[in-house]
């Protein structure tokens, strides 16, 4: 490549002294006379493209690759805020009115296990229902006993408490409300001594082992994201860590203002390191499309077209216009212009583009100026024995 560059630059310098262009026949003869100059191609040689020595190219950072048929994968990055998964939220309420005599879950954020007591509720109606049940058992009235037991069950009194009532033979003053699932108390709407009515929500409990993050997908990436798409979640608060997730739902409507589609990603949070409210970045791994592809840097955009430099087979690389398709993380699909197995320049294509343009410009000037015949203001050496003027 150094040899052709020196030859082309030398020809350009010689052309600067020319003033007059000769006839086309003279130009052809002039081209033949220039073929013996250092760096100029031999007669009849195909000079299209750029000759490239691989050893020299490696020193300049030029690499090579072959077009191949393979999946062109890309990852879509989006951001959102972590929140509790809605199916893992539960309200605890009172099925019977009364007063809170003892509060066990006494602050927001407290971790509770399934079946753990949350509060002790005194209810006159509950005391009456227990006495009715015990009376029916003493009278051996199975119908009345079954009716009283069913009433206690409808008030959400567990079977073990009803059985202990029968074994003990005496009523209990309070009813223990227990946690229906393990999790954290995210809302607390009651304090000790407070009167509550049937149906009042007293606590909200959330399980954080699985969190949701709603991410905004740009309109052009929406077709590549589907339910089930795998996702990798990272947060700034935990550098170096990543969490697995997947797209579980895609909202049906596009946001007209931001031109984005919202996708819901469920994130595994077994150790509880992730916290609701954290900003999260989701990298969604799309399935990609299979096709002929080359590395991204192999394609040189010129503004009006895309070029790749293809090995002609004799060590010269010629520019070829291609039509590109899907662009992935490291590959670009070539819809038209390349076949599997074609060798292309994979990096530093701008160097070959500059060399190719320079060579084309010099050759055009040589044809127009007719080098070797009339060099304008340049004095040509006299032949041996010629008469001097």
Structure description:
α4 packs antiparallel against α5 (142-154). The chain has helices at residues 2-15, 24-34, 54-59, 124-138, 142-154, 159-168, 349-369; strands at 50-51, 64-66, 68-72, 75-84, 89-93, 98-103, 111-112, 117-122, 174-178, 183-188, 195-196, 201-206, 210-218, 230-235, 243-250, 260-268, 279-285, 289-295, 300-301, 306-311, 316-327, 331-336, 343-345. β14 and β15 (243-250) form a beta hairpin. It starts with a helix and ends in a 20-residue tail after the last helix. The chain is built from 7 helices and 23 strands. With 389 residues, it is of the alpha+beta class. The strands form 5 sheets. Strands 1, 3, 18, 19, 20, 21 and 22 form a 7-stranded antiparallel beta sheet that branches. It has a 6-stranded antiparallel beta barrel with strand order 4-13-16-15-14-17. Among the domains are: 75-85 and 208-287, Efflux pump adaptor protein, beta barrel domain (Elongation Factor Tu (Ef-tu), domain 3, Beta Barrel); 95-199, no CATH class. Residues 1-32 and 371-389 have low confidence and may be disordered.
